[in-house]
Amino acid sequence: MKAILVGLGSAGFSWYKRLKERGLLAAVVEVDPAMKIKMGDDPFPFYTSLEEALETTQADFLVNVTSPMMHTKVNAAAFDRGLAVLCEKPISFDYQESKEIVARAARERLPFMIAENYRRMPYIRKAKQLIDAGAIGAISSLDIQFYRYHHVQRRYTVHILDDIGVHHFDLLRYFTGKEGTAIQAKLFNPVNGWQEEGAVLSAYAFIELEGGITAAYQATIASKGTETPWSGNWRIEGTEGAIEVRDKEIYLIRDHMAVKVEDLSGIDETDTLTEFLASLQEHRESETSGQDYLKTQALVHYAHVASATGQMQAILVPQMKENGEMTA
Amino acid sequence: MKAILVGLGSAGFSWYKRLKERGLLAAVVEVDPAMKIKMGDDPFPFYTSLEEALETTQADFLVNVTSPMMHTKVNAAAFDRGLAVLCEKPISFDYQESKEIVARAARERLPFMIAENYRRMPYIRKAKQLIDAGAIGAISSLDIQFYRYHHVQRRYTVHILDDIGVHHFDLLRYFTGKEGTAIQAKLFNPVNGWQEEGAVLSAYAFIELEGGITAAYQATIASKGTETPWSGNWRIEGTEGAIEVRDKEIYLIRDHMAVKVEDLSGIDETDTLTEFLASLQEHRESETSGQDYLKTQALVHYAHVASATGQMQAILVPQMKENGEMTA
Fold first, then answer.
1. Cα–Cα 20 to 30 A to B253, which of A65, B48, B189, B205?
2. What Gene Ontology terms describe what this protein does at the molecular function level (chains A, B) (predicted)?
């Protein structure tokens, strides 16, 4: 298996090392020729034109680590050549565009996976395993806090949900195995935020999921307080107990006694590349396929709508129709 | 100064001891004669009829520790005799009734205070002092988590906001010195709650306050996880730092360094009775007077409305009109 890597920014370079290490790299595409220096004396073909790379390189899949606004264009070019795609989140910032590209991959049976790495963190994987084993009974609620100070240069206007919250919303679906049914949200730039035209640095949301499960979400990247990990801190309440994932540690609470879970063994592979390759070899849908991840992006989309209207918003979960289009 | 104590249930008996200790007790009223046994051999007059007690006892004020549904009737009877009243929260479960009794007290210039004790807890008082001293700059947001398992016998249907959340909403106003302007809320019985007709065991809310301050609130009395104190855990973010009140301890965070605040000195008196007596002697409004506390109850009232409609609800802060009625 060989891959064309598109994008050699900081995330792109980490993909570069990963693909190189595993002998999977066919070629690199990066519009900024100055980036080539990162490759040192490595012999991989380097292109500044995606079209040229696609024409001249034999590959099985493409890894898309471009900036979010470029995602769809690059994914579409890969699909034009019949290539499978492993793409960094988001599918696209534009929800309609996300639905269209996912529908196309499904229609043309092209493997398309989003490299959602949060649900592959070992302590997240372990918490899910405990839940599935019935450690807390049926899930009742999930309360998530995410606090960081993260003021960095970006090529686009920062938006806490599109940039980071989408990971947490994906974990909501992962832990529960359920889809959202309704959402209320408030997206805003807090008093202690920095000035940036259009920036959305904080989010509050409450989400209802199938089966009466509820989630409350508080997130900011303008926090002046103690920081949480990128994955946030989680309180997952059930009918028989609770799991708290705090600072990357897991606590299992039964009868109000908290026990730290030290044994993280018995969880499956935890990187997106391995999952993608396995899905290709086994001709199955990957865990965070475009079709699945679109349901996560639906949560982000309806959070935007709910915040704009100040109203509880029903969530229409996107489904593939018989005519190959996406509903909702 | 002498008081008539009305109500000798568990909260009432703790008031009994407090008033007795300070030589303030004139008489006790309790409809259930079996309760008299709590008084042992104490010589204080005991009545099962409020009217009879009010007719035969010389007193300066009445302490109302009846069940919430009785509050207004008892307060009104005291006002009929020109007595000042120190009343346990809530003013009344009925918002309209709360406005009317507060308006009456104001019109007739009768001192009327709600015994709101949460804002008199030393660590709460200290956090407020730090905020007022500018320790975190201007307040930006307040995030509150309250988790307990509290399944007890009550004389009325449990409602997390009316019963407990009202204290937290009062602290929001206390810490910020601002009033709520809008609220979204979801009040519900969670999957892991017990069955009780009409019970509301969990609440989510986000509240906007004057000056762009925001608050997010998560609360449940059906928690199977680790419990917070009754006052909840607080993260108060500001423009220059943050204060976290966790498990009754205060942490001051500046430049992302958390320092535990050990010195709770320099804060003023911390019990409601002392404040009430001082306000009577100084002929001033008490800190949590009925007129002030009505603004706290407004938050609870509009949370109910917001939850019922699924819409962001503007908060109309009740004000005394020239004709002696309350607005909003």
1. B205
2. nucleotide binding
